[in-house]
Amino acid sequence: IPMLYFFFFPPRVPTVPVKNLNDSSPVHPALAGITGILMSAAGLPVCLTRPPKLVLHPPPVGKSDIRPIPGIGHCCRKTTKKQARKGRTPEEVVKRYLQKVRNSPEEDCTICMEALGGPSAYKGPGVASVSRAASVGRLAQCGHLYHLQCLVAMYNNGNKDGSLQCPTCKTIYGVKTGNQSPGKMEYHVIPHSLPGHPDCKTIRIIYNIPPGIQGPEHPNPGTPFTARGFPRHCYLPDNEKGRKVLRMLLVAWDRRLIFSVGTSSTTGESDTVIWNEIHHKTEFGSNLTAHGYPDYGYIDNVLKELKAQGITEDEEQQL
């Protein structure tokens, strides 16, 4: 048959339906169409899946459907200003958590990577007045050793809130606070169930942080910062464990640990509000981006993340 025949009268390819069978891997529509044509032309059966749908929000919820969370009388938290700093010098704060070391072991300080038996390699600002009498100290709880100057320098480069975190094992000394900007946190129960939690309703958390000017605790004081994607809606199952996570998140909010100001890992934008190492579920009815349900390990994982920020179950019970 002449080639011109195929040019003017191409063979008819039967329509191939794309079926949504289950939660199998998504297939891009263009790829589905090409694959269907090729398989049909070869006389093979076609059974492709439609891309799963992203479900960020629950069905519409009226004000009359919203209920307070059992055991928590309030439904809103605000932060308006930075927590007051402790009235001690950096050296005094660091020494509160140290034990004296008479003979330095033959190992390196993991901050400056120089021998503990010698001087600190740190020569930057903020340590000129640090006492030389006790050049090496052991953190009282975890036992890790550092140059005193290195710990003071690390403290000066942090939030300077009166707390100290071991750079080796992340043990927290004192009460850790962050640099979260002023905003509002709302929380309530809505009458819908999350995938994987059909036996309970849902806790909805709404975070709202406006743009503003960076303070002295932020990366670029005096510079504007942006706040993209607010209000942000997050979800927890309304069961015993979900309410425990919420109470610990309230402690984290009060300590300004949920958000920070920095560079977005998704957009690359600098000087913007970002999440701060406590993962939240922002998809209500899907889990296409790993930020939704079902995820049966999420509750235990976020409890570990909260503990790593110094928030214990004993503290959430005091709310």
TrEMBL record:
It is found in: Cytoplasm. SUPFAM superfamilies: RING/U-box. GO terms for molecular function: ubiquitin protein ligase activity; zinc ion binding. SMART domains: RING (SM00184). CDD domains: Deltex_C. It catalyses: S-ubiquitinyl-[E2 ubiquitin-conjugating enzyme]-L-cysteine + [acceptor protein]-L-lysine = [E2 ubiquitin-conjugating enzyme]-L-cysteine + N(6)-ubiquitinyl-[acceptor protein]-L-lysine. Its main location: cytoplasm. Residues 109-170 form the RING-type domain. InterPro entries: Deltex_C, Deltex_C_sf, Deltex_fam, Znf_C3HC4_RING-type, Znf_RING, Znf_RING/FYVE/PHD. One of its GO terms (biological process) is protein ubiquitination. Pathway: Protein modification; protein ubiquitination. Its EC number is 2.3.2.27. GO terms for cellular component: cytoplasm. PROSITE patterns: ZF_RING_2. Keywords: Cytoplasm, Metal-binding, Notch signaling pathway, Repeat, Transferase, Zinc, Zinc-finger. Belongs to the Deltex family. PANTHER family: DELTEX-RELATED. This is E3 ubiquitin-protein ligase. It comes from Sinocyclocheilus grahami (Dianchi golden-line fish).
